[in-house]
């Protein structure tokens, strides 16, 4: 299982902050596509990705036990 954490507007849009994905393997891009499809999170393309609390690049592999965090851009002053 892969744990998916959503922050800020992504969590609000999905109606949850955490999703469990019951697959043993995936990539960050597959997770983003899944969330776009199931939750309509079109803005997820601009989100920063962290795997196990370390920032990651696009299409990074994930395995069971990993936690992926999706963090949308933040603005403010």
TrEMBL record:
InterPro entries linked: Beta-grasp_dom_sf, MOCS2A, Mopterin_synth/thiamin_S_b, ThiS/MoaD-like
SUPFAM superfamilies per UniProt: MoaD/ThiS
Keywords: Nucleotide-binding
A Pfam family the protein falls into: ThiS
Highest taxon listed in the record's lineage: Bacteria
CDD domains registered for this protein in UniProt: Ubl_MoaD
PANTHER family: MOLYBDOPTERIN SYNTHASE SULFUR CARRIER SUBUNIT
Protein family (similarity comment): Belongs to the MoaD family.
Stored NCBIfam families: moaD
Name the UniProt record assigns to this protein: Molybdopterin synthase sulfur carrier subunit
Species: Bacillus atrophaeus (strain 1942)
